């Protein structure tokens, strides 16, 4: 009798989707009547997940294991086995592929582990588990417990022809609000020692015909974002450009996110990107460090001068979002060196700079040499660095605080204008600025507890008062006040501005401002969307504010200026359109 099997993905966030379980499911569709998918997130309540799994009445549960979910999966496995002792539990994925013997020995609830790529092994496993065979399985990459003994199969199984894996998404309409993950290749040409891709040599590709067919499905479905998990999407320069050109030809509403090596960007890549509509492509670039000794030690091939040149050219196009990454805790990178890496990358002005911390992944070269580097890391996943020969734990804590400030104030994009002004006024480097901001938060105890958006604006204002202290800085503080008001209104269409901000009292001008707005609705195309709408309803989508200078200009006009903020009619669907004119131009 066939055993009902449930493939389980536990994602880091609800908005994510699991590609791995869908690849396995797509390879076993002939058993669809006895095979199902269930997805959760690590933020779901433990007992809710356990109840859902138990009441699905499975004979086999197969978990997809990563650093973010392994602890939860081991807890679930132990409890499910107690609730249903006959249940067969299988683990697979990168987090269990490098020590299956120890996991089986330490966790009695686990029956089987598949190491490496699972499509072939999982298909063979289902055939075995649903057969009447009494002998031990002989499946490449499958480790298991048999007659009280742990049996480890160290053989690896890779899919030579990736096109043999069917399209993994069966019904895209059910995933409207999810980020969909997709691959056009497996493997990486580089050998970075912190990454698991270094454990498999070479790159295998899906054929272009197959990739084009899959991308058309995404485009026609209208999904919001597809993130490619290819480790280096542009390692084959010609192929990557062909895929990008095909996406452009479809003119989809979908955003496509690629991880690229910036130093491999060439003129064809730049020309193709330039032809893309704004928002179609998003690029993530892993710089990790600019210290030559560090890059050499981790075997990362990178020409930072070339990276900087290509990042600047991509940003100049103005139609793509750039996300650059750094890793703290790498060999030969001390606190000062990391600060320089930070400044080097921040100077490129990416839309987002992610400050990550080294994770000593199972199977990675850095984990194997951790003792040599005197790297201490947490025993539990995600095995993040605690200290190294070059960085103390105190250094790590300081960088953690800087990371939080970077995410809140730079990466969020909600404080862009105020931050640019304040950083220009702050003496020292970009790293020094975020170091000072995090010290200010520490000194005042602000790192304890979550902060509302309103509080974050107030705290940045208070910090600015310390940076711009003294009578000689009075004019700078007045200017900062205008820029932080601008940021508030760009990102808060409703709600009261913090009382701390100095505002122009335009109460006496209210009727004149309203009359001017009525005139603009009749004469200005930016306002014509409101024609035929009652003025009361118009005011649900328009705010105005008087500034002491025209903050909408690169070089501000110092005259009092009124700025109208025209918000999208659908709440939360984008930034407002700005319309400004000197206050003296307002007529009754």
Discrete helix count:
20
Share of helical residues: 25-40%
Number of strands: 20
Give the low-confidence spans: none
User: What is the total domain count?
Assistant: 4
CATH topology of the largest domain: TIM Barrel
Strand order of the largest sheet: 2-1-3-4-5-6-7
Distance between the termini: 84 Å
What is the CATH superfamily classification of the largest domain? Aldolase class I
Radius of gyration: 28 Å
Structural class: alpha/beta
Mean pLDDT across all residues, rounded? 92
User: Any guess at the CATH architecture of the largest domain?
Assistant: Alpha-Beta Barrel
Describe this structure in words.
The chain is of the alpha/beta class and 588 residues long. The chain has 4 domains: 147 residues, Rossmann fold (3-Layer(aba) Sandwich), CATH 3.40.50.2300; 220 residues, TIM Barrel, CATH 3.20.20; 86 residues, no CATH class; 79 residues. The strands form 5 sheets. Strands 2-1-3-4-5-6-7 form a 7-stranded mixed sheet, with helices on both faces. Helix 11 links the parallel strand 14 and strand 15. Helix 14 packs across helix 16. The longest helix has 19 residues.
């Amino acid at each position: 009798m066939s055993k009902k099997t449930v493939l389980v993905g536990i994602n880091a966030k609800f908005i994510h989707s699991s590609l791995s379980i869908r690849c396995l499911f797509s390879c076993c569709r002939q058993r669809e009547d006895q095979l199902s998918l269930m997805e959760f997130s690590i933020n779901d309540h433990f007992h809710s997940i356990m109840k859902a799994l138990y009441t699905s009445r499975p004979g086999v549960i197969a978990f997809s294991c990563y650093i973010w979910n392994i602890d939860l999966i081991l807890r679930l496995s132990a409890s499910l086995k107690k609730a249903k002792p006959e249940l067969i539990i299988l683990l697979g994925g990168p987090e269990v592929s490098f020590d299956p013997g120890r996991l089986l020995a330490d966790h009695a609830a686990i029956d089987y582990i598949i190491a490496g790529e699972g499509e072939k092994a999982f298909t063979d496993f289902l055939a075995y588990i649903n057969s009447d065979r009494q002998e031990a399985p002989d499946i490449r990459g499958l480790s298991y417990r048999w007659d009280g003994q742990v049996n480890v199969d160290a053989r690896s199984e890779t899919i030579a022809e990736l096109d043999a894996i069917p399209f993994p998404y069966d019904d895209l309409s059910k995933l409207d609000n999810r980020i969909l993950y997709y691959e056009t290749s497996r493997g990486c040409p580089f050998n970075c020692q912190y990454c698991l891709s270094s454990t498999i040599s070479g790159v295998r590709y899906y054929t272009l015909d197959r990739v084009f067919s899959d991308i058309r499905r995404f485009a026609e479905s209208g999904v919001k974002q597809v993130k490619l998990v290819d480790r280096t999407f542009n390692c084959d320069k010609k192929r990557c450009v062909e895929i990008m050109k095909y996406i452009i030809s479809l003119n989809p509403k979908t955003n496509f996110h690629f991880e690229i090596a910036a130093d491999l960007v060439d003129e064809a890549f730049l020309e193709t990107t330039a032809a893309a509509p704004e928002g179609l492509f998003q690029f993530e670039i892993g710089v990790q460090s600019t210290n030559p000794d560090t890059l050499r030690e981790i075997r990362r091939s990178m020409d930072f001068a070339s990276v900087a040149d290509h990042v600047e050219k991509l940003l100049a196009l103005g139609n793509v979002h750039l996300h650059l990454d750094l890793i703290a805790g790498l060999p030969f990178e001390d606190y000062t060196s990391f600060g320089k890496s930070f400044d080097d990358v921040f100077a490129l002005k990416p839309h987002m700079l992610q400050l990550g911390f080294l994770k000593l992944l199972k199977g990675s070269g850095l984990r194997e040499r951790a003792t040599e580097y005197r790297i201490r890391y947490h025993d539990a996943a995600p095995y993040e660095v605690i200290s190294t020969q070059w960085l103390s734990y105190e250094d790590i804590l300081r960088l953690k605080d800087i990371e939080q400030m970077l995410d809140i104030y730079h990466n969020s994009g909600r404080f862009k204008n105020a931050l640019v002004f304040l950083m220009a006024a702050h003496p020292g480097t970009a790293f020094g600025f975020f170091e000072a901001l995090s010290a200010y938060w520490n000194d005042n105890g602000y790192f304890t507890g979550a902060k509302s958006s309103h509080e974050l604006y107030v705290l940045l204002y208070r910090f600015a008062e310390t940076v711009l202290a003294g009578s000689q800085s009075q004019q700078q503080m007045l200017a900062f006040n205008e820029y932080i008001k601008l940021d508030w209104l760009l990102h808060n269409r409703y709600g009261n501005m913090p009382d701390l901000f100095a505002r122009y009292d335009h109460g006496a001008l209210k009727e004149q401002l309203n009359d001017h707005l009525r005139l603009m609705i009749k004469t200005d195309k930016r306002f014509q969307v409101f024609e035929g709408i009652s003025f009361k309803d118009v005011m649900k989508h328009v705010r105005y504010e008087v500034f002491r200078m025209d903050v909408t200009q690169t070089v501000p006009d110092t005259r009092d200026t009124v700025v109208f903020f025209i918000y999208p009619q659908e709440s939360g669907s984008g930034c407002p359109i700005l319309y400004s004119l000197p206050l003296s131009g307002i007529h009754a």
